[in-house]
Amino acid sequence: MTPNLIRETVRQRLEHLRARIKQACARAGRPSDAVRLVGVTKTVDTNVAALLPELGVEDLGESRPQELWRKRDAMRAPVRWHLVGHLQTNKVARTLPVHLIHSVDSTRLLDFVDREVASRGGSQDILLQVNASREPNKHGFAPKDLVEIVARSADLSAVRVVGLMTMAALGARPDECRQTFAVLSRLQRELSGSLPAPHSFERLSMGMSDDFEIAIEQGATDIRIGSTLFANLLP
Ligand SMILES: *Cc1c(COP(=O)(O)O)cnc(C)c1O
């Protein structure tokens, strides 16, 4: 595809995606600005990723820290960067600060990020990643451990917990996705108010290309969309 054709394709896909988000919000009785679109750019190069801020999407997500660094350095438009994938402690320093880390999946990482941010001054918003589909070997806290994790988060000095994130199991059927997302919104209700401000459980990051409409129905505030925008944009 020529750059112009790629641009036009992404523009049309985004328009269609926004319409689907709006319809899903309407069906759920939620205002359409209740859901934030995070464009996941991991499969495309910076030039293509840069189309999103031009088209009005200023929240971009990457799953690999190195790729986030690379695009962040290369991109000129103002972007709010979201890290949506696993973060190793040895990559924390170079990744900070970002708009939101969706994927804090261990107390070790939580404490590490907190110390790093505290040593620089400032603060960092994070989500606690939950293995709500209960798959073995999947990143994220077990739902049953969350109350305890949250209790110890009250001591954080620089990290601000602002919500929860989850992923449905790969290839899950709609009813399974719904169950997984319902676990996250139930945890949100149970945990809300359990941490002092400025912490909150306002945000629920859930829903990807194949299941975002179900996630919106279940209360998602952040949907992370990649392939719906960027699949098959071959040169
Ligand atoms: C790749 C990725 C997405 C986007 O997935 P699509 O199915 O391509 O929309 C969302 N969240 C995470 C954590 C990802 O790694």
Describe the protein's architecture and organization.
The protein is α/β, with parallel strands linked by helices. Helices cover 41% and strands 16% of the residues. It contains ten helices and eight strands. It has helices spanning 3-27, 46-49, 51-54, 65-74, 92-95, 107-120, 146-153, 174-191, 212-217, 227-230, and strands spanning 36-40, 59-62, 80-83, 100-104, 124-129, 159-165, 203-205, 222-225. Strands 7-6-5-4-3-2-1-8 form an eight-stranded parallel sheet. Helix 6 (107-120) links the parallel strand 4 (100-104) and strand 5. The chain is globular, with a radius of gyration of 17 Å. The model has no long low-confidence stretch (mean pLDDT 96). Pyridoxal-5'-phosphate binds next to strand 8 and helix 10.
Bound ligands: pyridoxal-5'-phosphate
Unreliable residue runs: none
Question: Structural class, from helix and strand content?
Answer: alpha/beta
Count of alpha/pi helices: 10
Using only CA atoms, what is the Rg? 17 Å
Into which percentage range does the β-strand content fall?
Answer: 15-25%
Overall residue-averaged pLDDT value: 96
Distance between the termini: 4 Å
Keywords:
eight-stranded parallel β-sheet, about 240 residues, about 40% helix, single chain, alpha/beta, globular, binds pyridoxal-5'-phosphate
Briefly characterize the structure.
The chain is 41% helix and 16% strand.
Topology:
Blueprint lengths: L2 H25 L8 E5 L5 H4 L1 H4 L4 E4 L2 H10 L5 E4 L8 H4 L4 E5 L2 H14 L3 E6 L16 H8 L5 E7 L8 H18 L11 E3 L6 H6 L4 E4 L1 H4 L5
Parallel strand pairs: 1-2, 1-8, 2-3, 3-4, 4-5, 5-6, 6-7
The structure holds pyridoxal-5'-phosphate.
Pyridoxal-5'-phosphate (PLP) binds next to strand 8 and helix 10.
